[in-house]
Design goal:
176 residues; mainly beta; four-stranded antiparallel beta sheet; 1 helix; 33% strand
Length: 176
């Protein structure tokens, strides 16, 4: 959206604009972001004569979308699950209870976790045998906030209710 005057602001859809009246100079005023679509917004001021200021570019970022796990695999040595997510996330405190991994009914523990770029590495208590399939779940239920993966805006990674992952990392490829 290009802003050239007050009319171009007021004509914008309700889900891409918000406003607040300034009641007194040198007083903090809160501009809420509720109802806005995710995105980066510019801030403008309009005076009593309807003059529009220059934009303070990219001053307000709205992000209400939680990170989502999009791909699951096993590393080449079979001792870690790699979970690709849609945006960068961080984990303040590792809590193993957030993860459930089962290899044919035999539980595995997630012993530590790290992230590099968009890939979360979940180190396991033992290797998954080549060709074996495990069930994986991630749940924030009962986990302290610090033990949850969150993006820069504080949105928590969506729970993964049940995912089947096969260790294909060392399977031979046959060429016919």
């Amino acid at each position: 959206m290009t802003v050239t005057n007050l009319a171009s602001i007021t004509a914008a859809a309700a889900n891409v604009k918000n406003s607040v009246s300034i009641s007194a100079i040198n007083t903090s005023t809160t501009l809420t972001t509720s109802g806005l679509l995710d995105g980066t917004y510019n801030l403008y001021a309009v005076d009593s004569a309807n003059n529009v200021s220059a934009a303070l570019s990219a001053t307000v970022a709205v992000d209400t979308t939680p990170p989502v796990a999009t791909n699951f695999s096993v590393n080449s040595s079979g001792d870690a699950i790699l979970m690709t997510i849609g945006e960068t996330a961080t984990l303040a405190v590792f809590e193993g209870g957030a993860y459930s991994v089962s290899d044919s009914g035999s539980a595995l523990s997630v012993t530590s976790a790290s992230i590099s770029g968009l890939v979360i590495t979940l180190n396991l208590s033992r290797a998954i045998p080549t060709g074996a399939t495990v069930t994986f779940a991630y749940s924030t239920s009962g986990i302290a906030v610090a033990g949850r993966w969150v993006d820069a805006a504080g949105n928590q990674l969506n729970n993964v209710t049940s995912r089947t992952i096969t260790n294909n990392s060392n399977l031979q490829i046959s060429v016919g």
